[in-house]
Amino acid sequence: MIIVDGLPFSTDTSASPQGRDILAALMEHPALVSASNSFKAILERRFSVPEESGPEKTPPSKWVYLFQREYATVDPALVDFVGTDEATTCVGVAIRNPGNGMTSVAHMDSPKIVDIGLSQMLSLLVDHNSDMELDVHLVGGFEDVSPNHGNCNTRSESREKLAGYSFPLCAKIVETLWNRQEKFHIRTLFILGHNTRRDLEGNAYPIFNGFMVGTSTGSITPANFDRTSRCPDEIVRRIRISASHEESSWKGKLMETYDTQTDQFKIAPCSWTLRQLHISLSLQDYSDSEILLMCSTSPSAEGPDFVENMRRQWEYLIEHPDWRETFPMKQPRIFERTAEGGWRRQKALIP
Predict the structure, then answer these.
(1) Domain total in the chain
(2) What keywords does the record list, in alphabetical order (predicted)?
(3) In CATH, what number is assigned to the domain containing residue 193?
(4) Is residue 107 part of a domain?
């Protein structure tokens, strides 16, 4: 069930509307249009470790960052902020239980992961005997045009879609919320046209690529995270995005990264194949513009470090062709939070 502005939401279409009909009606709802205008006016917050963990911060802020296709549910007693960025055609989804502040955030990149992904997000948020209305924020996606690109396979789907990438994903998310039994109070719908700006030539770009949620208040703010704050285990987690496409155990799922109870990152093992090594070797000599065209669903809208991040992943795969070097004995990589708010890797307990 979807709730907007305190009231159950309905459309003017059939009793069982399609996702596109629900989405179109939501995009025009006065309360959500107003919320989008208010969100657009908020100054984007930029996160970096030096800024957030300096001596003037007592105690330092604690946050959890999510990469593409990841999700995490956080406890406000342990985490101050949870967020994601780097979204172009992807959509960031935040669901919060206002009763206890538990907050789940996901970076969704495909309609195929929405059904199971939302169930994963809700698993620690919902008491099935409760009638609690859950606050929902959707940020990301824009009025994109699906380009021709090759089989780099590190973003969303690799085939063309006439409707672009953002619209089918957004439609699937709202349709799934509509059909579930829980009550979802949509607070922010900063997607598609609301999140689109155009240059003088009419090219479309997202206004914001990320956000963060303050766990104690539930406030949502546009956010940008630099490399120092996209922690821990940045490169390995980026590689898992592409590796997950070839592992059946991840099919239809969001990737688990964070343990809610212990406030630890637990990067589950994943394997990469010779195919991915060959792709890395073959792509490293391409120009920046060629890499954008082959590896992005929205080449003109990517951040300035997109190509550099791709090259860093390929370098890691070339240096570590055997995934078992990264995950000895198929054990997860575990990171615990330091007193300064950063992350420290635990030594692997290998018998």
Answers:
(1) 1
(2) Hydrolase
(3) 3.30.1330.200
(4) yes
